[in-house]
Amino acid sequence: MASSMRASATFLPLIDRLASCLLVPMPDDHALSPFWRNSQDLLGIADTNGVWLSVNPAWSRTLGWEVSDIVGRTSEWMEHPDDRDATRREVAELAAGSPTYHFENRFRTKNGDYRTLSWTSATEDGRLYCVARDVTELRARTLALADLVAKRSRTWDLTPDLLSVIDLTSGCFDNVNLAWTAVLGWTIDEVEGKPFADFLHPDDLAGSAQAFEKARRGEPVIRFENRYRTKDGGWKWLSWVALPDGDKLYSSTRDVTEENDRATALVDAQEGMRQAQKMEAVGQLTGGVAHDFNNLLTVIRGSVDLLRRPNLPEEKRHRYIDAIGETADRAAKLTSQLLAFARRQTLKPETFNLVDSIDHVANIVQTLAGSRIELEVIRPAIPLLVTADKSQFDTAIVNMAVNARDAMKGEGRLTIRVGAVSNIPARRTHTSVVGDFVAVVVTDTGTGIAEADLMRVFEPFFTTKGVGQGTGLGLSQVFGFAKQSGGDVHVESTVGEGTTFTLYLPREFEQTEKPASVPLSSVGGRGLCVLVVEDNESVGDFASEALVELGYDSILARTGQEALERLAEDCGRFRVVFSDVVMPGMSGIELAEAVRRDYPQLPVILTSGYSHVLAENGQHGYELLHKPYSIEQLSHLLRKAIAWQNNEREVPA
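RE: above sequence
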């Protein structure tokens, strides 16, 4: 009863459709799409052990069982006893990455009888995506086909389906009906006695030969598709149902060219819709960035114009300068939040006790929440270690707390619960992730989030708050930080009752030692030379002038190669290399690696506004100064680098 055949062109798009739908986070399985709810095919997702994670309503319509009867269990209790061994083998091969094409077995209905299902399945990201079609009636018709063809009944001449008898030894057509002429244009005499391969599309020769070999072994052919040449030189898609009997293969074949064209058009339409959704998201993001940056630039532009006015009082001059500085800081925070969402920020991970950090952040949260919000922090007595960017972690907790405060309109109960968990539980289309994690659960008693908005709350600039009440960037920072740190964030909400955000971070069990700090008090910059490497002329000139103001001498190189040439000429004159990361030709990281190799006691400070290499692989062991940076930040890192260099020179080789 169990068999598997090559995939058909009309059936595989269902798998692609199912996988593409389910790889996008959705509110729940039944809201995936009309395709999921209304499909007559049985759609489902299972883990690699065959346990169903989600199935569509067609299971109930076909077999009578409720969805709740099926989810969380394997199919063994429904399978016909004679089919279980073959099914277990097929699931094992599927879990190992081998797709299933039209595997058949029998499932028991709630009424006690059995339905024959034909499965096409594939594996993606550790999940099994399955599409099953009820072929009970089709199989009964197929079994009757041999008798029908043998008798050459009136149906043989009148049916629009292409009926044929093929000799399994020679591969030639013994008999065909008139439909071959109606569909393909060939006369009966032009087909009978000819090998079936003579009419095949070149690209379908190998697959058709494999299907024919299976038929020779006595296996039925169910919905196998290939292309046949028409007499006028075109091609038609044919779908075959065939049963071997002795040395003959009896087949009923249908022209599915129009169906395939419609399926292709549907896939193209869906891709167009997905592209439109992407463009809409990009438009929203671009509009949000433009709006916020234009506001910031308005303050900067206006302050600059006011500073140029003659006879400006000193008090106002300081006020406008402060406004420019504060606005630049807000612009830097905005780009940082966007990079956090995109998982492109450069993190500074360290191992720390998350419980202690929560105690510290709780004081900030209470201040931000106000006196009318009752804050409860529930934490274990033991330390819970994580490795993450501590500053970004604190920011994520504050962002979730501020979101909760606004949802409660300044009055209610906010609970922060910390604990160790052994997995990240499954949520909607996300499967469970097994491992040691620390969970931070932030629960409020606010207005809740509507179901339609749940999966959008992490999008940049998406907010349900009124104009001017929120940027829509806080939760996007939480999302990006969690993902980039190897964790996740989940949200659950009930309108009118409240919302719960759960942040998961991988747990550590050993504390890494921090390097000993080097005192900076005795480090000065006067007379020391810094090699500045920057391809942007304006930024390079600014950095050089800033170094002069700090008492340093500086030499400016426009490329990494030029910097190496300067070092080769006289490396002893330089105390620090201060390099941009993103440059044409040799990157700042490549330059730093060359300096580390050839001049191991020469410290390197990198600076960047954004680098995907740094975001993906960390700082490579170098000090990093984020653009935009202040003079104070630059001065601190220079002093730190020179102090390290002095310390290294004092240590005997």
